[in-house]
Amino acid sequence: MGTRNAPTRQELAQTAQARARKKVKKNVAEGIAHVHASFNNTIVTITDRQGNVLSWATSGNAGFKGSRKSTPFAAQVAAERAGRAAQECGVKNIEVRIKGPGPGRESAVRALNAIGLKIGSIADVTPIPHNGCRPPKRRRV
């Protein structure tokens, strides 16, 4: 028999600890909820004041597929998921910034309010073109 170079059980445990670092729980009291409501999906991202993401959820991520993603109920479920994850980070007060024309705008805000987050302000940050792109040239038939 020769000597084996296989790692011992103790060495394996140490390398596993080094690899799987404990996820640091952030403790943030105030956050910003960014709700992006498009016609096909609703994305809810909750960040701290500096813009670092604390939690996020989408209608598609919540298990809705196809045309059901673009419903107010799907947006409500996504907002609840993101809000609960943010509450685990210590978020209590949020500002809401809504972008886009989708059907999940209002229901996402209602869901965030319903899970116990205090909403300080609601702002619509939908980008609006100021004169916009050059229109296509006249159609000749």
Describe this structure in words.
The chain is an alpha/beta fold. Helices cover 27% and strands 24% of the residues. A five-stranded mixed sheet has the order 3-2-1-4-5, with helices on one face. β1 and β2 form a beta hairpin. α2 runs parallel beside α3. The chain starts with 8 loop residues before the first helix and ends in a 17-residue tail after the last strand.
What is the compact description of this entry?
The protein has about 140 residues and is an alpha/beta fold.
Task: Note the topology.
Layout: H1 9-19, E1 30-37, E2 42-47, E3 53-58, H2 72-88, E4 93-99, H3 105-114, E5 118-124
Parallel strand pairs: 1-4, 4-5
Antiparallel strand pairs: 1-2, 2-3
Helix pairs in contact: 2-3
- Uncertain regions spanning at least 5 consecutive residues: none
Could you give a short account of the major beta sheet?
Answer: 5 strands, mixed
* Portion in beta strands: 15-25%
Measured between the Cα atoms of the first and last residue, the distance is: 90 Å
Counted by DSSP, the helix tally is 3
Would you report the number of β strands? 5
Strands in their spatial order, largest beta sheet: 3-2-1-4-5
* Overall morphology: extended
Radius of gyration: 23 Å
- How confident is the prediction overall: mean pLDDT? 89
Order of helices and strands: HEEEHEHE
Helix content: 25-40%
- In terms of structural class, how would the helical and strand content be classed? alpha/beta
